[in-house]
Amino acid sequence: MTDNPVQIRIEKEVEEFIKKSGKDFRLCTTCGGPAIYPVEFSIPKESDIVVKLGDSTLYVSVVQARYLRQIEMRMIERYRRSLR
């Protein structure tokens, strides 16, 4: 895994959500586009970009990183809805 060499902005809300959760997450590819899930649902890959957010880690799929300019709350919404 590699530290974040790419300049991808992370919305403050995403950063705060991940920090508060105390979990590690992965931004991966789904049929609905890029999505963020806990690593229990989407296991990090060796090729992922590693972004430290407090005590938590966000793993970003290198496939998605090529196309991303910003990581947004909409990418974590499916997971948030599953918590309700």
Helix and strand layout, with pairings?
Blueprint lengths: L1 E2 L5 E2 L1 H10 L3 E6 L2 E6 L10 E5 L2 E5 L1 H4 L4 E2 L5 H6 L2
Parallel strand pairs: 1-5, 2-7, 3-6
Antiparallel strand pairs: 3-4, 5-6
Round the mean pLDDT to the nearest integer and report it: 89
Helix content: 10-25%
| Annotation field: number of helices | 3
**How many strands, what sense, and barrel or not for the largest sheet?**
5 strands, mixed
Unreliable runs, pLDDT <50, ≥5 residues?
none
> What overall geometry do the principal axes of the alpha carbons give?
globular
Assembly state here? Answer: single chain
- Helix/strand order: EEHEEEEHEH
Strand percentage, roughly?
A: 25-35%
Q: Could you please describe the fold and organization of this structure?
A:
The protein is an alpha/beta fold and 84 residues long. The protein has three helices and seven strands. The strands form two sheets. A five-stranded mixed sheet has the order 1-5-6-3-4. A hairpin with a 2-residue loop joins β3 and β4. The mean pLDDT is 89.
In short:
With 84 residues, the protein is of the alpha/beta class. It is 24% helix and 33% strand.
Main features:
7 strands; 84 residues; 33% strand; 5-stranded mixed sheet; two-stranded parallel ribbon; alpha/beta; 3 helices; globular
